[in-house]
Target: DNA-binding transcriptional LysR family regulator
Amino acid sequence: MLELRRLALLHHFAALGSIAAVAAATGYSASAVSQQLAVLEREAGVALLERSARSAALTEAGQRLAAHAATVLDAVEAAEADLAQAANDTTGRIVVSTIPTVAVAVAPRLVAIRGPQVVLRQYVDEEALERLRTREVDIAVVDSWRPTPPEPGLLRTELMEDPLVIAGPVDHPTWLVAPADQPSRRTAEQIMAELGVEPDSRWEFMGLATIASLVAAGVGAAVLPRLALLHVDVPTTPTGRSRRIDAVIRTGSQGRPAVTAVMDALTSIA
Model:
C-alpha cells in the first residue's frame, strides 16, 4: 500500500521541481525528503526519480504516479471537507495568501472571523497559486489583469473589480511602471497608448504601493488600481478599465465549513 504522506511529497516534487524546494515547503530536511521518496520507490516497485549529483527529475513512472497522487490528495481533501460539513465543524487552520494591495481590505474581516484559525500570508501571482496547489495555502487572493482560463482542480470566485486609474498628472513627462515581467506592466502600457501618452521616460519599480508613494511625492504619473491608492492623496483620472480580484481554492476543499466561513468574509470586501 502506498503511504499518503509520501505521495504528498511526490506531489510536491512534481510541482516544485527539486528536493530542496520540497524541503523548504514542508519543513523537512532535504535528506528526509530524499529518504521518504526512496521509500516510496520501494513501495511502488519502480524508479520514480532520476538522480544525478546535483539534481533529480521524475521518471515516466514518477510522472504517472505524481498525477495519481494529485487525484488521491484531492479525494482525501474532499472526504475531509464532507465530514466537516456533516459535523458543521468550522474549526481548523486556514492559510490565506493575499496580494499586498488587497491585504489592507481583507485583514480586518479575517481577524473578526469566529471559528477557524486564520493565518494570513503575502504571496503574489504564480507563487500564490503554486502554494495553493501544493496545499501550503488554502485560499489564494490573486489579481487578474486579463482574462484567466479555468484550471482543473482550482475554483475561482470573483471578489471585486478594482478600477484602474491614472494617478498623478496625465501630462507628466515621467511615468512609473512595474518591471516588464509583471502582469500590470502590459496593461499600463496599453492604457497609456490608448490615451496617446508618450512619456519621456519610464521608471521601473517593483510594488504598486511603492509606485503610489512616488506618485504622491510628485516623481511621476502611473496607471494604478484604486486599492493601491487608499493611503495616498493624488489626483486620479478614470481609465474605464479594471483588474479582477479573485479568491481561489482547491475544488476538494469546497464545502468545508471553515473554508466557507473565510470565503464569506472575503466576498464582503466588494
Q: What stands out?
A: The chain has three domains: 4-86, 93-161+245-269, 162-241. The chain has a mean pLDDT of 89.
